[in-house]
Amino acid sequence: MRNTRAVEAWTIGPLEHFVGQAGARLVLIMTPAGQVMAQYGFARAVDVMTAAALGAGIVASSSEIASMLGQPPFAALGHRGTHHGIVLSSFDSPRGRLLVLVVYGVETSLGLVQLFLGTLVDDLAAACPVPESRGPVLAVNFENELNRSLDALFGQ
Amino acid sequence: MSAHVRRALEEITRIRGVRGAVLADRTEGIVVAESAMLGVRREAIAALGASLVRRCGVLLEGGGLGVPRHVLLQGREGTLVAVPVTDELLLLAVGDAAVNVGLVRAELQRVARELR
Amino acid sequence: MTERRPRAPWDPHSLDAAERLRRQGDLEAAARVAIDRLEHAPGDAAAHDLYARVLADMGNLPGAESEWQEVLGQLPRHAGAHKGLGFIRFREGRLDDALDHLEIALASAPGDPAVVQAMRTVRAALQREASPPRDRVFEGLEGAGRGLLLVDARGGVLGGAVRDADGFDRSELVGGYAADLVHEARRTTAMLHLGSWEWVVVEGSEGSTYLAAPTDEAVLCILRDRGVPAARLTLLAEPALAAAREWLHEQTL
Fold it and tell me: pTM for the whole thing?
């Protein structure tokens, strides 16, 4: 599947399976901080960065609301427009908390996206390798890592 | 409406061989109301049933045969019956392979008329 | 008394020159040379052959055939004559006879590229003739030609046809949608634990459709207007499925 790119290669299989079954147009798998692990369907780096930042922001905001209500963070959020819908889902994985942003069109449905998100979570958990121990994040490391991520996400 | 709809769905599930009945949003493929046995995947019925009926509609339109009135999907070990209620709602029932599909269809159509 | 002038001796290169005239399209001039030669040497096979080619170019196939038969009367394995007769038989649709002539031509003139190409053309035509046309799949069955369609798993039409009330062929469109619907049906039965998919019936406001798979790689689609009850489609399906399986089996032989 040409439109799939990943910083973490183990996410590719589950992501491609999800896209094939759910019929999503755009997908981001990322950390709550907005660091993208894999993407499908995006053509430009700036779109990936923007979508990741906004998606992470939406989840963070809604988590605050949930906290004010005295409940755990919302598992999923959905918005439906005329031509597209979006779903933001957060879940626990061996790599910690992860977020998935899905954009879908009229050719599929919220129900199908939600149905196969469950499979995606299971597949990611099954595919996830044992996490490596990481050193402290320095500014220069962060920038290098960001550039490396963008290169991987856009196949350069 | 919720209690009335739930009662109607429960009547469908009382038909011998029926494992579950779902009222689904046709566009979103999500459950609006349901009555199903334990272990029956209600969300999957709604999502996949709505997607199937949408494709049936596309095929009928391509063949000049109008819009779907009912859909009968036969598997080796089970059956899915779908009856559109309105442009927004869809009734679905899942049953065993030998379920009386005529009776299920008739009941779904009766409930659909009540819901319109 | 008129003195008859002696005829100029025959130039053996004049047939070559006439052939060049023929290829340049000057058929009349080429024909005059051939006729002149044949008036004085009726048995000249080369002149008969040339004249046959000129007549064929002019569209006079009966005349050309007669000339080539003259050639074969003297030289039974003349490559040019057999090549010409092969062409005539091909135009007549007698493909086996065409191939027979071309095989003799090739044996007499091995490696002649024109003969080789002609044989390829005839063999391709024979192959097409051997393939049953689309409508033969469901020949004799109710709905054949308008409401019985066989497609592959990707929606490509294999046989049969679907036509709407105005007679327009909707096979390609319906075939694509049918394959897509079957893909979804298979997914649905698998994920809802209904076992392997067997068939689906859809009743519409203006008619009904039935889909089933005669083999793993093909889909049968039956369409009827609302004059036919949806339940009847499952009865119509059995002979159609059997016909489809038999036809598909023949394609692999």
Answer: 0.71
B85 and B91 in contact (C-beta within 8 Å)?
Answer: yes
ipTM of the prediction: 0.96
Tokens (6 digits) for A60: 């963070």
In a domain, C3, yes or no: no
Q: Do B65 and C206 touch (CB under 8 A)?
A: yes
**In a shared domain, residues C85 and C142:** no
Split into its structural domains, chain C has a count of: 2
CATH code for residues B2-115 = 3.30.450.30
DSSP code of C196? S
Inter-chain residue contact B47 with A80, CB threshold 8 Å:
no
Contact in structure between C34 and C26 (CB atoms under 8 Å): no
Contacts of B45 in chain A (CB under 8 A): none
Closest CA of chain A from B14, distance in Å = 26
CB contact under 8 A, B77 and C205: no
Cβ contact B91:B8 at 8 Å: no
C186 lies in some domain: yes
Neighbouring residues of A71: CB distance < 8 A, sequence distance ≥ 6: none
Tens digits of per-residue pLDDT, C128-181? Answer: 666 556 668 998 898 888 899 999 999 999 999 999 878 889 999 999 999 999
pLDDT tens for C102-121 read 999 999 998 899 999 898 88
Domain extents for chain A?
4-153
Architecture of domain A4-153: 2-Layer Sandwich (3.30)
Domain ranges across chain B: 2-115
**Residues of C near B (CB-CB distance < 8 A)?**
162, 164-165, 170, 173-174, 176-178, 180-181, 184-185, 187-189, 191-209, 223, 225, 230
Q: Are residues C49 and C104 in the same domain?
A: yes
Query: Could you say which residues of chain C have pLDDT below 70?
Result: 1-10, 12, 127-135, 253
Same domain? C125 vs C138: no
Angle, in degrees to the nearest 10, between helices A139-153 and A45-68: 120
